Amino acid sequence: MPILLPELLWLDGAFRRGLGVDVDARTGRIVRVGAEAELLARAGDDLVAGGPAAELVPSTAVPEYVRGGPQVERLPGRALLPGFINAHSHAFQRLIRGRTQWRPADAPDADFWSWREAMYAAAHALTPEDVFAVSRFCFLEMLRAGITTVGEFHYLHRDRNGSPYDDPNELALRVVAAAREVGLRIVLLDVAYATGGVGEPLRPEQRRFATPDLDAFLAQVWDLRAAVRDDPLVTVGLAPHSIRAVPREWLRPAARWAADHGLPLHMHVSEQPAEVRASLERYGLAPVELLDAEGVLSAAFTAVHATHISDAEVQLLGETRATVCACPTTERDLGDGFLPGAALRAAGVAIAVGTDSQTAIDPLEEIRLLEYHERLRRQRRVLLTEPLGDRLEVAPVLLDAGTVAGAHALGLDAGRLRAGACADLVAIDLEHPALAGWTDESLAATLALCAPADIVRDVWVGGVRRVEARRHALDHEALEAFRRVAGAGVPTPGAEPPSN
Ligand SMILES: [Zn+2]
Question: Residue 51's pLDDT is what?
Answer without folding.
Answer: 43
